[in-house]
Write a structure and sequence with these properties.
Helices cover 21% and strands 45% of the residues. The chain has helices at 42-52, 83-97, 138-145, 173-178, 183-193, 228-240; strands at residues 2-20, 29-34, 57-61, 69-73, 78-79, 102-107, 110-117, 120-126, 129-132, 157-160, 165-169, 198-205, 208-217, 220-224, 247-252, 260-266, 271-296.
Length: 298
C-alpha cells in the first residue's frame, strides 16, 4: 500500500475587510481578518496573505486562554505581534461573539488586554526595552535618512514592547515633510546592525504627533500608513524618558493621502495604551484546497 496526497475539495473560509485607525470610511490601514481559521496550516496562511496582498492578514483560532489566538502574516513572513491586526481582529470578534467591554487575545508575543469604548478599541502593552543606538553608528544612519544633527531632537533608540523597531525623534514637522531616505544605504545600515530595515520618525507638538514609518528591502523603500506596534513602542520610549502621563493623538498616513489616527496614552504604572477606531468595509470568502491522504494499492 502506498500513501498519496491529493487535493480533493475546496474549503471556504470567510473573511472580513476592515480599515483600522480610520477617521473615515475609506481611510485607515486595511486588514483582512479570518475569524474562523481552524484547519489552516502555516503554508495556507502564508499563501492567503500573499493572495490578499495587504500589509497584514490576521487569522483567529480557538484558544483556552483568551477570546482567540491570533496569527499575523505579512505577504513575506509571520509577525509575533502587530497593533493594527490586533485591533482589527478585536472589532470583528466582538461583532461575532458579543464580547464584554474588556477581553484578551493571544498572539505569538503573549496575551494582550483589550478594551472597547464605543467604536474605539484599545490594547495594552507594558514598558518593554528601550536602548539607544551606539553613538558611533548614528552618523551613517542620519546619512541614509538624508538628515543632519540639527534634524533630530534625541538619540535614536531600539524599542521593543512586543515587536522591536527603531524610533527617531525629529526636531520639527518640516523634517518629515521633506525626508527622502536612501533605500540601499538604509538596508545596508540595518544589515550591519543585524536588524530588519524599518525606522519610525516622529515629532510631537501640543500633544499631536506627526509620524512617518519607512522600511527598506535592498533598493526598494516602502512607507507604512498606520502602525500600532510602533505607536506602542513610542509609548515605551515615553516611559523610558519619564513621560508617564502622555495623552497624544498620532497622525500617520497623511503624506500618502491615507490618514490614520491612533491614540496613545501612558501611565505611572508603566502601562501603554494604543487605541483606534475600526470600520468594516466588506465581507467575503476564500476557497482553500484541502489535502487528504489516501491509500493506493501497489
Amino acid at each position: 500500500m502506498n500513501a498519496m496526497s491529493l487535493p480533493t475539495e475546496l474549503h471556504d473560509y470567510g473573511y472580513v475587510l476592515v480599515n483600522v485607525f480610520a477617521p473615515s470610511h475609506f481611510a485607515g490601514n486595511p486588514l483582512a481578518v479570518f475569524p474562523h481559521a481552524d484547519g489552516l496550516s502555516d503554508a495556507d496562511m502564508q499563501a492567503i496573505a500573499i493572495q490578499m496582498n495587504l500589509a497584514e492578514t490576521v487569522f483567529a483560532f480557538k484558544s483556552e486562554d483568551a477570546v482567540a489566538k491570533l496569527r499575523i502574516f505579512t505577504p513575506d513572513y509571520e509577525l509575533p505581534f502587530a497593533g493594527h491586526p490586533v485591533i482589527g481582529a478585536a472589532r470583528v470578534l466582538d461583532q461575532l461573539k458579543r464580547l464584554p467591554a474588556e477581553f484578551t487575545v493571544q498572539t505569538e508575543a503573549g496575551i494582550t488586554q483589550l478594551k472597547r469604548d464605543k467604536m474605539r478599541y484599545t490594547f495594552t502593552r507594558t514598558q518593554g526595552e528601550c536602548d539607544e543606538v551606539a553613538s558611533s553608528e548614528v552618523p551613517a544612519l542620519l546619512m541614509a535618512l538624508g538628515l543632519d544633527d540639527l534634524s533630530v531632537s534625541s538619540a535614536p533608540c531600539w524599542v521593543n514592547t512586543g515587536s522591536e523597531q527603531l524610533l527617531l525623534e525629529v526636531s520639527q514637522t518640516e523634517v518629515l515633510s521633506h525626508i527622502k531616505p536612501d533605500a540601499a544605504q538604509l538596508s545596508a545600515w540595518f544589515a550591519k546592525q543585524g536588524k530588519r530595515a524599518a525606522v519610525y520618525l516622529w515629532h510631537e507638538k501640543n500633544r499631536y504627533v506627526r509620524v512617518r514609518f519607512f522600511s527598506a528591502v535592498g533598493n526598494v523603500l516602502t512607507e507604512d500608513i498606520g502602525t500600532g506596534s510602533a505607536c506602542a513602542n513610542l509609548g515605551g520610549w515615553c516611559l523610558a524618558h519619564g513621560l508617564n502621563d502622555v495623552n497624544w493623538l498620532i497622525q500617520q498616513g497623511d503624506y500618502l493621502r491615507r490618514p490614520n489616527r491612533l491614540h496613545l496614552q501612558t501611565s505611572a504604572e508603566g502601562l501603554i495604551y494604543v487605541g483606534g477606531e475600526t470600520i468594516v468595509v466588506g465581507h467575503g470568502s476564500l476557497s482553500v484546497p484541502q489535502v487528504v491522504t489516501e491509500d493506493e494499492s501497489c
